[in-house]
Amino acid sequence: MIQVRTQGTTNAVQIPAELLRSIPRDWRLTGMGKFVVGAAIALGLGAVASSVAIFISAKGTSALKREMAEQGQVVPGVVVKTYRTGDDGKRDVFLYEFSVDGKAYTGRTDIELRASPHYQAGSSIPVRYLPSQPVKNWIDGHPPGGVPLFVIPLLGGGLLVGSYAIFRNLRRQEGLVSEGRAALARVMKVTRVRRGEQKKQRAQIEFVLLSGARQEAYIEFGRNAPQADSTIVIVYDRENPRRVLRYPACLVRAAKPGES
């Protein structure tokens, strides 16, 4: 193994034997890698399932509104309870009772605060119901909003983007672990940087290429960045040495000698 002693310590930093094997190296997912791949698959399946569910719900609500407009009847009802819900109480909820052919039914209608009639308990209200199924009802003039179809590409697309980002990061690590050259790098300095809402640490490193030339690059860490003047193991892209990955990586590792 290639090893370097870090200044101020008797411990030697070594390039693991699995990285000294010929390129391309066999690779394996780490425990975290398996978990992340599972999460990426779940996101992809979730995108499909949620899109289908929203579409079915939206179509069902649209069909019910159409049927109610064509066949619905209106009878008087009485509010039995009202309260507000949602963030900062932005919706009025009305619980009410009405009767059809001598049989009592209950219902619930949620109305946005800005459009609410502000009924109080005991108020008389018009209830629209479906004669074939009186349990399907609402306060007349306030049908359920349902989920708009434009939510499908927003939600489904967001989940797919998340899945793609995971597989892209996995592919990057797999490429460097399999095809990259191994080297020992000295951490020159570590600074704090911000990526949107995230705070990260950025390490500036220096290492020696196979040609003998010195190369500088940067690696970002979410936490537990190495200290300045320490030595770390990296793999770098042979064609673009600025593309580096600290080893061992979180998602992918090189197969060890003798590992099937």
Explain how this protein is built.
The chain has 260 residues and is an alpha+beta fold. It folds into two domains: 3-35 and 151-253, no CATH class; 47-139, OB fold (Dihydrolipoamide Acetyltransferase, E2P), CATH 2.40.50. It contains two helices and 14 strands, in the order E-E-E-H-E-E-E-E-E-H-E-E-E-E-E-E. It has a five-stranded antiparallel beta sheet, covered by helices on one side. It has a five-stranded antiparallel beta sheet with strand order 11-10-9-12-13. A two-stranded antiparallel sheet has the order 1-2. A hairpin with a 7-residue loop joins strand 12 (231-236) and strand 13. The chain is elongated, with a radius of gyration of 31 Å. Residues 1-10 have low confidence and may be disordered.
Query: Which regions are unreliable across 5 or more consecutive residues at pLDDT < 50?
Result: 1-10
What percentage of residues falls in helices of 4 or more residues? 25-40%
Q: What is the strand arrangement across the widest sheet?
A: 6-5-4-7-8
Largest sheet: 5 strands, antiparallel
What's the end-to-end separation, in Å?
21 Å
Overall body shape: elongated
Summarize the structure.
The protein is of the alpha+beta class and 260 residues long. The protein folds into two domains: 3-35 and 151-253, no CATH class; 47-139, OB fold (Dihydrolipoamide Acetyltransferase, E2P).
